[in-house]
Amino acid sequence: MKSLYELAVLLILSVAQQCVQSYSSSYKYIMADFKRCQREKPDVVLWVQGRLLDQQRRAVIRELLANKRAWPKDIRVTTFFAVGMCNSRKAHVSLQYEFEVFKDILQNDYHEHYENQTAKMISAITFIADYCSHSKLAIRIDDDVLFHPATMIRKVMDMMTKKSKNTYDEAEDYHSQRRYELSSNRISRLYKSLASLPSNRFTNPNTILCHILSNRTIIRPDMNRPYPVKYSVLVTESIYPDFCAGFFIAISMDVMIKLRELFAVEPPFWIDDSYLGVLQKRIKTVNVNANKFLLFDAPENNLRNAISAGTNMDAIAIHLTQGPAYYSQLAKANVYKELRYDYQ
User: Fold this and answer.
1) Angle of the 324-331 helix axis to the 55-64 helix axis, nearest 10
2) How confident is the model at residue 13 (pLDDT cuts 50, 70, 90)?
3) 32, 107 contact by CB (below 8 A)
4) Considering 106, 167, 287, 325, which has the largest number of Cβ atoms within 10 A of its Cβ?
């Protein structure tokens, strides 16, 4: 006998599934500054996945996390906020104004919805791979994540540049055990473009750093549990490949280019973190497990020490548990003084 809570969750997901569009390997651009990376030549592209209507969070992130004065002087960073569409004319006009002022909005033609996070991820990766490919590192964060920029990037660079036996996979391995094949010309172009990428002090090639989740059961519709996927997804599997918790993922740029190629041949499904894990398995990424440094649902009493300690901070990044109201409260608190102007 299911509880009322479980029945409510299942009902919400059932209704939501009817509102979600079919996934595509690409989405048209509505707002985007295609020349921003060309102008700013960033080493790091910070890509934020949040909701279109959360202007306050975007303002906080611009002031604290994306503020170039909070990053080391020798590291250039550019930030994009990936958002979808909504039916509100007022929201669209407000977003258009925000884009004209900051030039950091990346909007594509999918509807804002929890189950369209995969569309949002595909759009952001495609944009970065196409227009920021000479950057060294892409970092995806949710808009309820906090970190000290200088401390975060130092720890990420240190962990992602440790020696590993894994390098670029040969094309034969890259495409083995795959249900879809790329043409030999596409493979040739892909690896030629990867070979031309500049040397990288930020990360080893083919590397992803994140909080890794393992041994997660694939939920099917007949299980009457939250987060089901269709039977056509991973037909012969019962367990997802290891995948990243999406609140913070650091990705070497060569992986971004490979992922962009795979969208056309590996059918997307609605759980973006799990879908990314499938792609990671296909290209055999080196997954750096940063679980003890990337903290889920950090309680309030741990945040002050973790965020304001700066170079003494143990965590790379913290995912908040209290939601939008607490995020706004933190944004105004003195706990952030140390973030603001470290490198002036």
Assistant:
1) 40
2) very low
3) yes
4) 106
- Tell me how crowded residue 88 is: count the other CB atoms within 10 A of its CB: 13
Cα dihedral 225, 18, 50, 134 in deg (nearest 10): 100
Calculate the CA dihedral of residues 213, 218, 224, 225 and round it to 10 degrees.
10
Q: Which amino acid is at 305?
A: N
Mean pLDDT, residues 292-321: 65
Residue 83: C-alpha distances to residues 160, 227, 247, 263 (Å): 28, 22, 16, 19
Place of tokens 């999406």: 246
Rounded CA gap, 142 and 120, in Å?
12
CB 85 within 8 A of CB 51: no
What pLDDT digit, counting tens, does each position of 109-161 carry? 999 988 899 999 999 999 999 999 999 999 999 998 888 888 899 999 999 99
Alpha carbon distances (Å) from 253 to 27, 84, 127, 128: 21, 24, 12, 9
Element (H, E) at 46: strand 44-49
